[in-house]
Amino acid sequence: MGRRLGVMGGTFDPIHFGHLVTAEEALAQFELDEVVFIPTGQPWMKEHPVAAPGEDRYLMTVIATASNPRFSVSRLEVEREGSTYTVDTLRALAAERPDAELFFVTGADAMLEILHWKDPEEVLSLAHFIAATRPGYDIAVFEAGAPAQNARVSVMSIPALAISSTDIRRRVKGGRPIRYLVPEGVKSYIEKAGLYR
Ligand code: ATP
Ligand code: MG
Hints:
binds magnesium ion, binds adenosine-5'-triphosphate, alpha/beta, 8 helices, 6-stranded parallel β-sheet, 16% strand
């Protein structure tokens, strides 16, 4: 039987406990064998540019996931020039891991953007989609708007964590605490590299 491979995409600018809880819940609820985190290269569907260089975002993701034997991090997107589209990444993963069944894990907000992604039909043919509930975003909006795609999209309830990278960057800039919002090692890395000041 093929491996059930979770794919967690994001800018991870920086990675925080909301991302980690989402991936862990996907592992458990969808009986995945592993989850690969894929930090984006260039910003993807972002109204604001990424704040930290790809290499720093990649390293913070490695630090945050290191203790979980089922989590890994891919350099696929950080090593690519220009914007990366989900469809290209899923295609590359499908070619690299022909045995794997892909499960793309996103928060409710990212799922709401799915219709605006490049080649939405091909995207949906390459993977199952797991949309995690996220405070402040209404998953019902997506469900009502895209009935044809619901077959490949599952909604996943997770413990609500109103944590965002945007808020963490603002906190660092304002000298406010980020302890308990990100793993200790990520907090140390942000301080050491002088990110988000
Ligand atoms: P930013 O504020 O910079 O957009 P973010 O916190 O939304 O950062 P991303 O890197 O954009 O983090 O998110 C990657 C993926 O993780 C997205 O699919 C997003 O929906 C999901 N996600 C992020 N934070 C949470 C959270 N607290 N609960 C559930 N899903 C989340
Ligand atoms: Mg986001």
